[in-house]
């Protein structure tokens, strides 16, 4: 069992930066791949970024070069560093844990555990 709690969301202007954090609890956390998804009002949940247990990363095309996912297994933390934010990045951001590999990590079905989400709002 893994419990996930996100933090770090907020209101930021276009071009600004935020760092989202996801605190994980559970003895097997380090063996899970971790992902970030987001959901804007009226839209489906979409993949943002993922990191494997060994540190390999994969990103949604629209955030490549702007967002960076990282993990600190010693602290049971996952981070999403977001730079050059745009109004279209506005969404509820979720942290998730799963056991998929590679491109599997881009689909929500590959994840077993989810946090409650943290809101990111980018003003124009």
Molecular structure report:
- The chain has about 120 residues and is mainly beta.
- It is built from no helices and eleven strands.
- Strands 2, 4, 5, 6, 9, 10 and 11 form a seven-stranded mixed beta sheet that branches. A four-stranded antiparallel beta sheet has the order 1-3-8-7, with no helix packed on it.
- About 35% of the residues are buried.
Give the oligomeric state of the chains in this entry, treating copies of one chain as homo and distinct chains as hetero. single chain
Low-confidence stretches: none
The number of helical runs is 0
Let me know the number of strands.
Answer: 11
Helix content bin: under 10%
Helix and strand content put the structural class at mainly beta
Q: Main beta sheet: strand number and arrangement? A: 7 strands, mixed
Strand content: over 45%
The coarse overall form would be globular
Integer average pLDDT: 95
Terminus-to-terminus distance: 40 Å
Radius of gyration: 13 Å
Query: What's the order of the H and E elements?
Result: EEEEEEEEEEE
């Amino acid at each position: 069992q893994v419990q996930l709690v996100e933090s770090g969301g907020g209101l930021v202007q276009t071009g600004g930066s935020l760092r989202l954090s996801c605190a994980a609890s559970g003895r097997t956390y380090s063996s899970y791949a971790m992902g970030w998804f987001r959901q804007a009002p009226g839209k489906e949940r979409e993949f943002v970024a993922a990191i494997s247990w060994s540190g390999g990363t994969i990103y949604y095309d629209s955030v490549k070069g702007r967002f960076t996912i990282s993990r600190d297994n010693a602290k049971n933390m996952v981070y999403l560093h977001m730079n050059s934010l745009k109004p279209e990045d506005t969404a509820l951001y979720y942290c998730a844990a799963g056991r998929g590999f590679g491109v599997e990590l881009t689909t929500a079905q590959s994840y077993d555990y989810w946090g409650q989400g943290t809101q990111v709002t980018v003003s124009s």
